[in-house]
Predict the structure.
Amino acid sequence: GDPEQGRKLAVQCQTCHGIDGLAKIPIAPNIAGESQIYLQSQLKAFRSGKREHEMMSVVAKNLTDRQIADLAAWYESIEVTVTLPD
Amino acid sequence: GDPEQGRKLAVQCQTCHGIDGLAKIPIAPNIAGESQIYLQSQLKAFRSGKREHEMMSVVAKNLTDRQIADLAAWYESIEVTVTLPD
């Protein structure tokens, strides 16, 4: 996938997941830095109906394999660092 | 949920998701910093069979509501920061 194309496509994701992959609402997951393998598998599961969600099932239905690959490349390209609580 | 208890319970998650919530294998998602609402909903979906995954369906089947709450509290307590590509 092409992360530059994915970044453009991510405008349709940003209300919930952010362009930066950090969720804007509690019911949505952060997706920054997730692997392309994981992101593609989940988008395809939503598209096929294997995984269901009110919003994602609708969004994913209209995505091509290429668009899914580009979106996955974008979100994977975001670097994540974590800090554990004391 | 109690994050301290969750951290202890997370030994059963760490092979794939890490104690720090950063995935150790590409097919698993990072779960660091995900909201308790999201984490609980997904663990309960795996437990009920609404969401399916070879590994997670087995792991979640044995979790109580309390354990799910504790695990969610642990992983939510991890702070995530992101860096976008140039």
